[in-house]
Design a protein that fits this description.
single chain, alpha/beta, Rossmann fold, 2 domains, four-stranded parallel sheet
Length: 362
Amino acid sequence: MAFQQEPSFQHGQAARTAILYCNLGTPSSPTAPALRKYLAEFLGDSRVVEIPKPIWWLILHGIILRVRPAKSAAKYASIWTEGGSPLKVFTQQQAQSLGTALQERGHKVSVRYAMRYGQPSIPEQLNALKAEGVQRVLIVPAYPQYSGTTTASVFDAVYRWGLKTRLIPEMRFVNRYHDDPRYIAALAQTVREHWAAKGQAEQLVMSFHGVPERTLQLGDPYHCECMKTGRLLAEALGLSKDQYKLTFQSRFGKAKWLEPYTEPTLIAMAQQGVKKVDVICPGFTSDCLETLEEIQQEAQEAFLHAGGESFSYIPCLNNHAQWIEALADISLGHMQGWDLSAPDAKALASSRERAMAHGAKI
């Protein structure tokens, strides 16, 4: 196997630490060609679709990638911003804010963001960090709840990069933070702020991204972690069991997915006389297609059409100050034992001199 060329290295140089904050990904533009490329990578991941590859390849390339890109492009176009995809904009902001928060606490940690599918890619950013002299990397997925379809796929990309790398940095991984008190508190704060500005609806609907029910039966903890997040958030807000509902969205294909489904639940609620709902998506740390188009647009239209009177979407954590502080706390907890201080110039020079002297003796 041919390994990648290693960046230049000076003996005695200080070890640097970095965080790679990883989100799902986004197409480069809201166009059919860009969506075709993005969906081919995303849906071609065996972590995402667990169907035998030869069969799935025919379905994906013979049907889905011929029909879906144009439809998805129109959806993306409805939420696209001047800065590009909302998910990319918010993910980039979170990474920058996390770096600033750590710096303000006196820690010298580089923070970059990467996308599992699309750009900037995980291998690209890991190569960039190595070129900067980084020798310790904390991988932080943007997914609070662990799932083989998301979190594990991020780790796969890191492992595959490692297969082509001669000198692999020391690595640590954050698997989950679905029940971390600081994450829950940040979620609760966004809800309280929304209620203070717009009032509290009759029901709070917590909509999580769905996955095939089969994954739960095979041992994926995602469903259980979503349920725990929902319960803890409700407790933090002082809600009784009849004041909130937990649902799953984004069903794809004909297989049974985790239930109850979000849009049918909202329709049923409206038909049963519920007039006002608030909807939050706790499993997404950044607003994206699934929250801004699927929930704020499509789900809202379905609820109002079924007889509801008021649908209020509560934005994701995005760049909320309390969330950034929580993310800093979570990251620091996983970096315990690593020296996060800024390298001292004199000590660094002395270290290099000792290393050179040692090399001369050898």
